[in-house]
Amino acid sequence: MLDVKDIFAWRERIFSSLLSVVLVVGTLSTLAIVPFLIQQGKWPVALADTVALLWIFAVWRLKRLSYTVRVLHFLGVVFALAIVLLVSVGPASMNYLLAPPMIAAILLSLRPAMLAVAVGAASLVGLGAADFISLNVPGWEHDALKGSLVAALNYATIGVILAITCSSLLKGLSLSLADVRTFASTLETSEMALRNLNSELELTSEAVSRLNDMVLIARASDAGSTERAITFANDAFLRRTGYTRDEIVGQSLGILEGPETDPAVSARISQAMLSGQPCNAELMSYTRNGEAFWVEVEMVPFTRSGERASHWVVVGRDISERRAAAAAIKQLAFYDGLTGLPNRRLLMDRLGALVARSDPDGGIGAVLYLDLDNFKDINDARGHAAGDALLVHAAARLGQAVGPNDTVARIGGDEFVVLLDGLGPDAAQAGRAALEAAGAIRTALGAPLDLDGQAYHIGASIGVALTARAGASAHDLLREADTAMYRAKAGGRNGVVLFEAAMLDEAQHKLAIARELAQAFENGELGMHLQLQVDRHGAPAGAELLMRWQRADGTMVRPDLFIPVAESSGMIVALGQWVLRQACAAWLALNQAGHPMPLSINVSPLQFRQPDFVEQVRAILAETGAPARELIFEVTEGLLIEDIGQTITRMHELAALGIRFSIDDFGTGYSSLAYLKKMPLYEVKIDKSFMQDIPQDLSGTAIVQSILSMAGHLGLRVVAEGIETEAQARYLAGHGADMQGFLYHRPMPLAQLIERLDSADLAAA
């Protein structure tokens, strides 16, 4: 089949083939007929054939000439040969004249063909009229012109018919070739598009098959039906679920659901699919082996324009790790890591909800604030592992002691909170129910507990607050329960206290005192007064520094109000350092005035237990230059309750500096006589509560006498506080005790004390 792009190329190929055929045939015929023509004396014909053959050969060789020129030359050769043959041979050669129009119509166009017809017809008329050829017509034998015209007319008629026929045929062929070419181009384009589409489909299929996301294609069901047969499953789906493609194709999408799949989510998906709407969901799905896993699915209908969905494309992602991480984050955010109980954040959410629904009609709730008693002792003695184990057991017992609708939370350390709901509409009844629940909790906690072979009893101080107070917020209730808990702890521990408004007033008053005390310390409103201590002869034997607070308006704040607040707030540490500096400065001033004497200061247990307390004392002594041997640290018996070993070690370190120690309020707290001889004590101070009725009170006198006797055997100085009567003074003087009290001296500023001492010296002189 010829590779023809257009009619012009086709004509060129035909002309080239025609020249080749003419040359071959012409050469053979010329070689055969020329000798005969010469023998017959028709050398002009022989010469014409030879010239025509050479001319055609030249046209065949001269390919650099344009196509049209070469065709015209060829037509000229044929036309010339036709004329020669007409003249030489006669009208029998007239058919040669039909060749140029036909060849022109085929190789050029209709116009050159018609011109060739005209030239041929004119040649016939000219040759016939000139009698070069005989074109006789019956009846006009003697009129050559008319015969020539008739022959020319016939020739022209046939020539035009043949030219038009050939031209029309070529034109139709050209149009057909154009149509074929267009069709071939369209077919080629379509084939390329189809090939590309197939490649894209193969690529898409391979890509979908290799996606990490799970992909399913399911056939859309008829209206009202829930069966959607799976028609495609990619490799990721098969890997995750364990199904083979043969097992899953044809099955319904419902095969992936199981007992933990949320029915509400399944119903929502089914409704979306029935309505032909895309949807997203997270649901529990199942593998072939029944393993549950979380999957996030996106379901999209496949529809053609104007038609209902034929298929559903389901894309799923395994979000088990994400859900597990979210659950872990939620656990960390809302639950205690040790006990698994709700933490403070979740507690406040539930407490807020409890407050919101607690009203006289809906029932009153309660907040129970628990603090485990002496938990620090277990941590210190057995380590934090034992403490954590105890907390876990306590949490479990709390959960067993309350109802299923109640909340148990751990809010830090050894503190727990229990929320009770539905205690009834009556406040008194709700209070009794809350106290009963608190008692049940104490009983549950107090059951014997064995930890690594050691028996423990868990005690707890519990504060109870009711939600009955109008306008109380969740934070208010928690604070009220906390306040009641501290009242229970102060009352001896392992008790239950129901919150009363007065407790909050007291707590708020303490908070106000703490704020004012901090400002007073910064503003210099605190000062130190000194109270003399005298020997049995009434002579000064030392002095105790006592802190006083005088507000800017001149009013005084009693020490028994602000000292406990300083202790509970932790300010006592900073105040204690300041007091030590004041004592050093006071001794230097007394020494400068000629009245050197030992000075006693009170040291808080909290300050004494500071890790760097010894270094603080050493630094202040070095800074002020005061002698350590002139300072007496008064400590209470409460210091001896916790970590007695470390306490004694630290007392010896301070004694090595020269500090002397006194046990203040001796006999009012816990004292182990076995430890007294291990401590570097200098004196004991008898509390004023024992001095009130001596010597008339025989019991009190016996206690004082025992203390004096013990101190004498241990070589300790004895100072009796609160001496206000002569009878008390005579009794104590008779037993060799030093005394301190209003009978001899009231606390006063350092300047006044120096004045008084100076006056006493002048009087003695």
Question: What does this protein look like?
Answer:
- With 765 residues, the protein is an alpha/beta fold.
- It is built from 25 helices and 22 strands.
- The strands form four sheets. Strands 13, 14, 15, 16, 17, 18, 19, 20, 21 and 22 form a ten-stranded mixed β-sheet that branches. It has a five-stranded antiparallel β-sheet with strand order 2-1-5-4-3, with helices on both faces.
- Strand 9 (449-451) and strand 10 (454-456) form a beta hairpin.
- The protein is rod-shaped and about 200 Å long.
- Helix content is 54%, strand content 17%.
- Helix 4 packs antiparallel against helix 5, helix 12 packs antiparallel against helix 13 (384-401) and helix 18 packs parallel to helix 20 (613-624).
- The longest helix is centred in the N-terminal third of the chain and has 67 residues, at 144-210.
Topology:
Elements: H1 7-39, H2 43-61, H3 67-88, H4 99-107, H5 110-129, H6 144-210, E1 214-219, E2 230-233, H7 235-241, H8 245-248, H9 263-274, E3 279-286, E4 292-302, E5 311-318, H10 320-334, H11 344-357, E6 366-372, H12 375-382, H13 384-401, E7 407-412, E8 415-420, H14 427-446, E9 449-451, E10 454-456, E11 460-466, H15 474-490, E12 496-498, H16 501-523, E13 526-534, E14 540-550, E15 556-557, H17 559-569, H18 572-592, E16 599-602, H19 605-608, H20 613-624, E17 631-636, H21 644-657, E18 660-666, H22 673-676, E19 681-686, H23 698-714, E20 717-721, H24 726-734, E21 738-740, E22 748-749, H25 750-764
Parallel strand pairs: 11-12, 14-16, 16-17, 17-18, 18-19, 19-20, 20-21
Antiparallel strand pairs: 1-2, 1-5, 3-4, 4-5, 6-8, 6-11, 7-8, 9-10, 13-14, 13-22, 14-15
